[in-house]
Design goal:
Rossmann fold; single chain; binds magnesium ion; alpha/beta; OB fold (Dihydrolipoamide Acetyltransferase, E2P); 686 residues; binds adenosine-5'-diphosphate
């Protein structure tokens, strides 16, 4: 049977008129190299070219088609000026202002009374009408070449509008009718067109599209997403879980070594996790807690529970630095062996570790995504914990699910994820929240300083070092370029070295990972007191002794990011400080951002304010921005629609769990169209 999606999933380079160079530019613009990717690059506005008027009835500002004859021609007086072509249709005179020589040559060939059709925007200079650079100029027999409506696409510099238009036309000609995946009743109620009509209505419209065109496509995307999420969730639920019951023996020892009692929040979260693990189904739980709320301890106790119940536990961190830090914490606290698996564990050490995971001799392993490569086989993985989940995609979670038939899953994040977003990223997950910080913490004192006072700030830091305090110094994000960030950090490091000698360390992302880890470890162990760093320390670095955070050019960081950075101090009982150094001439928004941070430590308040100041954009801060996999819809803004898709998907899967019915088959096409590959693979596997 022919694959109805083949024309859409073919590479753009197969399109007529699209060479390899254009194909590459298109791929860069649209985020993918397939015809589908091009077609999903939707216009952000439309020019209606359907109005035809006489010259006399034309209003300034209109986009119109005139049928005119050429009455005269005035060459440009300077190269930067247009040629002026005088035209008339018998009702009045007007001029065409033309810069393009080729176009001019074409037009002037039409003298001697032959009529011409021109389309463009008209301006008025006094009583003189002028059509600036007509978009189309054709003899009347070619009228069809003037499209009724022209889409205007978001562009990049390298690609010409003409190239994009040509490619889009070729792509549009490949769009055929597909089996309908939506409920016909829904389509009627919403007055939505078919997929084909919606897409063509936007990409090569005969009339300006209605909101229904876009809504239909946005909903397609949301349904695909919700189906994929729900399918994965259903699959995980279908798999029999098992009851893991912690005995508490190892936990008690870990807590004794830790030396503090869990907070009420931590105890509550752990009780929820225990209940999930003890229930005979798989756990899918999100542990949400602001920076410094103590998620690691909860994870550690949960892992020990799994080990006490006779299984293994794995903890996956987003970076090697964090994996190693977790390793140090675990080694200090847990009364059982712990292994480390990252990309840089190789050779015999790696083989040995894999063997021990396989035969079950190693109960706990910490690592990066290296943990979920094929070669890693556990004897019996009872619990997998993922730290800082927004760095990992859903696909990785699937891989992880594959590591143990009945593995419970705990995901930890510091990001205050709104419910809607949870729905988009995870389908629905159970959530535990850490709502308080460990007792004995004092609020961090945050102060704002103009960069003009840098010298006195450095002197103050010198005094703090003399008192034995530990200080982070985070260097500015000069531009997007790593090179200049790096230069800034290295220059600052060199300067601090001259002043404070070997008390100073340096950590940045371009260092060899061994060097960077050693540098962070030296700081953690107190061998250095001042760590000059870039944002590599932003996530999760835990040095309870550190009590001062200086951020240079704080105005260049995102609010959420500054909150994360500040969360690196205030982890012990000592009074901690955060100094935000900023440019002198702050904008109103910039000032607002700084004072928000100064006045609150509440991550939710900060996220809210961030959201407002950014005008709703980038909720999750710089790096976490954008929801992967959403191009045609905005789940944050269209939250009602997302809920609808959520229910729609639930009903569909409930009636047809394997997507075998006619509508189910169509829904499979939808999943492929929107590239929910992971879901499809598991569908295939059933
Ligand atoms: P995060 O939630 O940001 O990952 P961590 O787990 O790194 O936070 O914990 C922050 C700091 O608080 C760590 O230094 C940790 O040892 C300490 N901590 C965690 N729980 C408690 C507790 N119940 N009592 C005292 N200190 C705690
Ligand atoms: Mg953490």
């Amino acid at each position: 049977m022919d694959d109805p999606l083949a024309p859409l999933l073919a590479p753009v380079s197969e399109l007529r008129g699209v060479g390899p160079a254009t194909a590459e530019k298109l791929a860069r613009l649209t985020g993918g190299g397939r015809v589908r990717d091009l077609l999903f690059h939707l216009p952000d506005s439309f020019i209606d070219r359907r109005t035809r008027t006489s010259l006399r009835d034309t209003l300034a500002g209109q986009v119109v088609t005139w049928t005119v004859e050429i009455a005269g021609h005035e060459p440009a007086t300077k190269p930067s000026h247009p040629h002026r072509v005088r035209v008339t249709d018998g009702t009045a005179f007007a001029e065409l202002a033309i810069w393009d020589k080729h176009r001019l040559a074409n037009l002037t060939r039409a003298r001697n009374g032959a009529p011409y059709m021109v389309n463009g925007r008209v301006e008025a200079f006094g009583s003189r009408l002028s059509m600036r650079d007509p978009a189309y100029a054709v003899p009347p027999e070619d009228e069809a070449l003037i499209p009724p409506v022209d889409p205007v696409w978001p562009m990049t510099a390298r690609l010409s509008a003409r190239e994009l238009r040509t490619a889009m036309r070729a792509a549009s000609s490949r769009v055929t009718d597909l089996p309908e995946w939506h409920d016909p009743a829904l389509l009627r109620r919403e007055r939505w067109p078919s997929f084909r009509d919606a897409l063509l209505g936007l990409q090569c419209p005969n009339e300006p599209p209605t909101p229904q065109h876009r809504a239909r496509l946005g909903y397609d995307e949301m349904l695909a997403h919700q189906l994929a999420m729900m399918w994965m969730k259903a699959r995980e639920k279908r798999r029999p879980g098992r009851s893991l019951v912690a005995t508490g023996a190892m936990r008690a020892e870990a807590l004794r070594r830790f030396g503090f009692d869990p907070t009420a929040s931590q105890a509550h979260a752990l009780a929820e996790i225990d209940a999930d693990m003890a229930a005979p189904r798989r756990m899918l739980r999100l542990l949400q807690g602001d920076v410094g709320s103590g998620k690691t301890l909860v994870a550690l106790l949960a892992m020990l529970g799994a080990v006490e119940a006779g299984t293994q536990a794995a903890l996956m961190a987003p970076t090697e630095v964090l994996a190693k830090q977790h390793l140090r914490t675990l080694e200090r606290l847990v009364p059982c062996p712990v292994g480390l698996l990252t990309g840089s564990v190789t050779g015999a050490a790696r083989r040995n570790l894999l063997l021990q995971l396989n035969n079950g001799r190693l109960p706990i392993v910490v690592g990066t995504h290296a943990l979920f490569q094929e070669a890693v086989e556990f004897r019996d993985l009872g619990l997998a914990v993922i730290d800082e989940q927004h760095r990992f995609g859903v696909e990785q979670r699937l891989l992880l699910g594959g590591k143990g038939e009945r593995t419970d899953l705990l995901v930890m994040t510091a990001t205050p994820i709104p419910r809607t977003l949870l729905l988009t990223q995870w389908g629905e997950m159970e959530v535990s929240r850490l709502t308080e910080k460990p007792a004995g913490r004092q609020p961090i004192r945050t102060t704002l300083h103009s960069l003009a006072t840098l010298e006195s700030v450095i002197e103050g830091i010198g005094r703090a070092l003399d008192r034995g305090e530990q200080v982070y110094w985070v260097c500015p994000m000069v531009t997007d370029s790593l090179v200049s960030d790096l230069a800034a950090a290295e220059a600052r490091f060199a300067e601090m070295r001259t002043r404070f000698g070997h008390k100073v360390g340096l950590a940045h992302g371009q260092q060899d990972s061994a060097v960077r880890d050693a540098s962070i470890a030296a700081f953690a162990a107190g061998r250095t007191q001042l760590l000059v760093a870039t944002t590599v320390i932003e996530v999760g670095v835990d040095v309870p002794g550190a009590s001062v955070m200086v951020v240079e050019h704080a105005d260049r960081f995102g609010l959420a990011q500054l909150h994360q950075l500040r969360g690196r101090v205030g982890r012990g009982a000592a009074q901690s400080y955060c100094l935000l150094l900023h440019e002198d001439g702050l904008t109103e928004t910039g000032r607002r951002r700084m004072t928000t941070l100064r006045d609150t430590e509440d991550g939710f308040v900060i996220a809210d304010e961030d959201f407002r100041l950014r005008g709703g954009g980038d909720l999750l801060g710089k790096r976490q921005s954008g929801l992967p996999g959403f191009r045609l819809s905005d789940p944050e803004a269209q939250d009602g629609m997302l809920r609808m898709a959520n229910q729609d998907a639930a009903v569909l899967l409930d009636r047809d769990p394997k997507l075998e019915s006619e509508r189910g088959q169509a829904a499979r096409l939808l999943l492929r169209l929107f590239d929910r590959r992971a879901a499809l693979e598991t569908l295939g596997a059933g």
